[in-house]
Prior knowledge:
Blueprint: H1 3-12, H2 14-23, H3 28-56, H4 62-94, H5 101-128, H6 133-159
Helix pairs in contact: 1-2, 2-6, 3-4, 3-5, 4-5, 5-6
Amino acid sequence: MGLLADIVATYRSPGAVMRRHLDGVRDEGRVLMYLLLACCLSCLAQWPRLQREVSMDGSVALEIRIGGALFGWMFIAPLAMYAVAFLARVVAGALGGRGTGYSARLALFWSMLAVAPLGLVAGLVGGFIGPGPAAAIAGLAGYAVFCVIWWFSMVEAEAGGAFP
């Protein structure tokens, strides 16, 4: 399946999509591409909010704010996500999981990419409506969906569906 079709299918059945990815060719480059694409989309999702902040408080230029977001999302976040995937693998291993570092990375990075469209919506809400209940709901909804997708992906990655 194509990337967009897989993202849509992930919302219906995250475990099945993860199983299909795990059964495919083991390719670290593909997993890294998922991470970098998710980070790029997350960075882009920040731009409406950053523009709103500049229009409300012009003390820092938009270019500087975007540069900070770009640095954080494209350089710092990927390193942090590799550490999170490592820790998730260690915890899953301690709980009896039989996955690998590759499967843990794939589960986390694919979950991030699958939820990126919700991050874009949350960014638009934050940019156009501003801080408040709508932005909080959009952010929490995206976070909740990420947690569910990551959970089911880790279950599939660690034991083919048998992990608690």
